[in-house]
Amino acid sequence: MSGLESLYQELILDHSKRPHGKGLGAEAAEGRVAESFQRNPICGDEITLRVRLSDDGSAVEEVTWDGAGCSISQASASMLAALVEEEERMPRAEASVLIDGFREALRSRGEIPLDEEVFGDAAALSGVSKFTARVKCAMLAWVAFEDAIARA
């Protein structure tokens, strides 16, 4: 295993052990709130992800989640929450572009790496794309994010 692969593996384990955004945020907070429940029947991963948008619905202000599953699904949810948290008010259009880029990279079977400057720690999940059985694990939170934004 290369040094970079080892670092990425360590980052995934760190996010799964000390997750960002875990624990559903307050429903009564200002802004528009929506949530999505997603399940991966192949390995049993489950996530409920809650998104809070600005009052006008133009920006994602917060992502919180709760769930159970493998370290990849838990780390992916944590990395997504951290990415949104870093930006504070992520424009809704930018969130859609991120989701599409993440999906494209994970479906590429290793051909398209995730850019660390764009995806932050989630770039560590690039290697998952080589393992088709694990792609759904990594995508679960991102599918829930996409669904929750559409519902808000």
Explain this structure.
- There is one protein chain.
- By secondary structure, the chain is an alpha+beta fold.
- Strands 1-2-3-4 form a 4-stranded antiparallel beta sheet.
- Strand 2 and strand 3 form a beta hairpin.
- Helix 1 crosses helix 2.
- The protein starts with a helix and ends with a helix.
Element layout with pairings:
Layout: H1 3-17, E1 32-40, E2 45-53, E3 59-68, H2 71-87, E4 90-91, H3 92-106, H4 116-119, H5 132-151
Antiparallel strand pairs: 1-2, 2-3, 3-4
Helix pairs in contact: 1-2, 2-5, 3-5
> Helix count?
5
How much of the polypeptide forms β-strand, as a percent range?
15-25%
* Distance between the first and last residues' Cα: 42 Å
SSE pattern, N- to C-terminal:
HEEEHEHHH
- Spans where pLDDT lies below 50 across 5 or more residues: none
The main pleated sheet reads as:
4 strands, antiparallel
Mean pLDDT: 90
**Order of adjacent strands in the largest pleated sheet:** 1-2-3-4
User: How many β-strands, per DSSP?
Assistant: 4
Radius of gyration, in angstroms, nearest whole number: 14 Å
User: Which oligomerization state do the chains in this entry correspond to?
Assistant: single chain
Percent in helix? 40-55%
Q: Based on Cα principal axes, name the global outline.
A: globular
Which structural class matches the secondary elements? alpha+beta
